[in-house]
Amino acid sequence: MAENMEKENRAVPAQEIPDEETAAKPVLKKAGFATIIGRPNVGKSTLMNRMIGQKIAITSYKPQTTRTKIRTIYTGEEGQIVFLDTPGIHQSRTKLGEYMVKAAKGTLKEVDVILWLVEPRQKISEEDQAIIALLKEVKTPVIVVINKIDKVKKAEILPVIAGYSQAGDFHEIIPVSARTGDGVDHLMEVLFSLLPAGEPFYDEDMVTTQTEREIAGEIIREKALRLLQEEVPHGIAVTIETMKMRSRKGKGEICDIDASIICEREGHKRIVIGKGGEMLRRIGTDARKDIENMLQCQVNLKLWVKVRRDWKDDDTQMRSFGYDDRKL
Prior knowledge:
alpha/beta, 6-stranded mixed sheet, 10 helices, globular
């Protein structure tokens, strides 16, 4: 008894007593916005998908796959980054092209950090020179991200870094491979270092502000672009006519989706459908698998093909397909 009392009354060593100076301070969280810009087909959507850790934006080897701002969210121990993936900045020839460029440029003053993606070419192209001039008009910190370094030798990257160092006053120049993930961890560290302290904007389990309906439409468009290759130009849009969940007794839920693939010419319609409907079935099969992975349930997908002549130069039709410049 006396021994127990002695143990209870024993002085606690000084190093075990926390005080205001030695107590662990809470880690300061960061939260902010970053936009990803660049010429068409430099890998913007692939990089964003890599940083988020899952596929959100559609990707294709074709340029101008992304047509509007796509907002995705990464939440980790350091805090939260809200990414804006934008269409490629290019010389527009249609109203759709003008909308895409306006969507990309409009993000530059809305964010805390700009990620400018370029390819590992020693000579800076005229298109990239135009982007440099555009970036000089904003005070937002710019990180030049040299993507696709897996396609060149390491010795070829140093002259590229030197060229961009001389071309503008950039916060940092970081070589990465969005395809393999090389250099992306360092890019994320630099990104967080530039964000302000703050509370998250979105719940930690949220990865995009796009609706399931919007993502389903983009998945269908991606499969069409990939399967049609060079046969049909980018005059394709997708509208989700209906998307409804229903329960089946003893078999779980199923999602019924009716969607239309919009093209500009009757000749394009025939190509999208294919001989005996073969191409349309392939598009539907590939899209259904990805949509089922997203919704985690069985999907009944029905596709139609419609012609809307020259819709890319028609404001009313563009807005009906979700490309509304009044909302930028």
